[in-house]
């Protein structure tokens, strides 16, 4: 596995490999890898000649009061895990390498950002779309792998790819969970021990919602109330949002039908967790 920190060195290597018509599977991450990331890498390994992992904690996508400085980082551990997954190239640029000057342009996401994380994290998806536009131009992947844990991100990335005509296949990957159902996340390490015990309730509440829908409930407000009650009574977390929207358009719906997402975000002492379930009826 080769590690690149310089964009120009990395691009020269990619150019050579592209000339040999090799397919490139790309997994962009912020590092502190866990089984969720490794699942994306395994899928990329199965489907492509070359696998590229990027690790970049992108300052643009964090708000001023968010956890950029406390976001967990451990490059040596990540490097060993990436080797284990037979990654070909690990791209690990510094913020100065990615943003050497005050940018003259940024990507602004106009659709699907007035809901869920877009609403509670203003500017977040502009930061995501800007860095991905840069990364897509640098890596020129055949396929890009994204986890459905960040389902709104998958929907936004779909928009970036189609609006800007990137010749990239977007591959969404199912959520990988801990034994108690908690969605794996680099941020879970910042939960206090008692919060970690409570955090399984997030998935439990989504699962209970699913059962209620399977039994015939079609009123989205009743379902979100049920989730809110469970989280409020069984955890010390503060609910940021619980919403049900069509997926991937992310529009409100009066009755539960076709494909929709039940999504939630809950703030604990040092960390805000998200989770979701996409259902089809
Ligand atoms: P991050 O490092 O948190 O930016 O995540 C990098 C990629 O891994 C994103 O596409 C995430 O959606 C995906 N990912 C993170 N956690 C999980 C998980 N538990 N299951 C599946 N994919 C995940």
Structure write-up:
It is a single chain. This protein is α/β, with parallel strands linked by helices. It has 2 domains: 2-173, Rossmann fold, CATH 3.40.50.620; 186-274, 2-Layer Sandwich (Pantoate--beta-alanine Ligase, Chain: A,domain 2). Helix content is 39%, strand content 20%. It has helices spanning 7-19, 35-47, 75-84, 95-98, 116-120, 124-139, 151-163, 193-198, 200-214, 220-234; strands at 2-4, 24-29, 50-55, 89-91, 143-147, 169-173, 238-246, 259-267, 272-280. The strands form 2 sheets. A 6-stranded parallel sheet has the order 1-4-3-2-5-6, with helices on both faces. The longest helix has 16 residues, at 124-139. It starts with a strand and ends with a strand. The mean pLDDT is 97. Bound molecules: adenosine monophosphate (AMP). Adenosine monophosphate (AMP) is lined by residues 29-30, 36-37, 39-40, 146-147, 149-150, 173, 175-176, 183-186.
Summary keywords:
281 residues; 39% helix; 9 strands; Rossmann fold; alpha/beta; Pantoate--beta-alanine Ligase, Chain: A,domain 2; binds adenosine monophosphate
Would you kindly provide a brief summary of this structure?
The chain has 281 residues and is an alpha/beta fold.
Helices and strands in order:
Layout: E1 2-4, H1 7-19, E2 24-29, H2 35-47, E3 50-55, H3 75-84, E4 89-91, H4 95-98, H5 116-120, H6 124-139, E5 143-147, H7 151-163, E6 169-173, H8 193-198, H9 200-214, H10 220-234, E7 238-246, E8 259-267, E9 272-280
Parallel strand pairs: 1-4, 2-3, 2-5, 3-4, 5-6
Antiparallel strand pairs: 7-8, 8-9
Helix pairs in contact: 6-7, 9-10
């Amino acid at each position: 596995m080769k590690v690149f920190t310089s964009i120009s060195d990395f691009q020269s290597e990619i150019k050579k490999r592209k000339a040999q018509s090799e397919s490139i599977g790309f997994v962009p991450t912020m590092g502190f890898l866990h089984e969720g990331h490794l699942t994306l890498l395994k899928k990329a390994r199965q489907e492509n000649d070359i696998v590229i992992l990027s690790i970049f904690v992108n300052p643009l996508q964090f708000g001023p009061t968010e956890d950029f400085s406390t976001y967990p980082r451990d490059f040596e551990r990540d490097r060993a895990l990436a080797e284990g997954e037979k990654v070909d190239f690990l791209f690990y640029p510094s913020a100065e390498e990615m943003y050497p000057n005050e940018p003259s342009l940024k990507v602004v996401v106009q659709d699907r950002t007035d809901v869920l994380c877009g609403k509670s994290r203003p500017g977040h998806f502009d930061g995501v779309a800007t860095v991905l536009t840069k990364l897509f131009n640098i890596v020129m992947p055949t396929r890009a792998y994204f986890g459905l844990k960040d389902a709104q991100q998958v929907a936004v990335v779909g928009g970036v790819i189609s609006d800007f005509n990137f010749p990239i296949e977007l591959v969404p990957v199912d959520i990988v969970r801990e034994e108690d159902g908690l969605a794996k996340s680099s941020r879970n390490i910042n939960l206090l021990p008692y919060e970690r015990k409570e955090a399984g309730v997030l998935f439990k509440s989504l699962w209970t919602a699913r059962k209620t829908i399977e039994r015939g409930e079609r009123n989205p407000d009743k379902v979100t109330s049920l989730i809110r009650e469970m989280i409020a009574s069984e955890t010390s977390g503060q609910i940021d949002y619980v919403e049900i929207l069509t997926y991937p358009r992310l529009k409100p719906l009066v009755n539960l039908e076709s494909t929709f997402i039940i999504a939630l975000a809950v703030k604990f002492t040092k960390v805000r967790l998200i989770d979701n379930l996409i259902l089809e009826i």
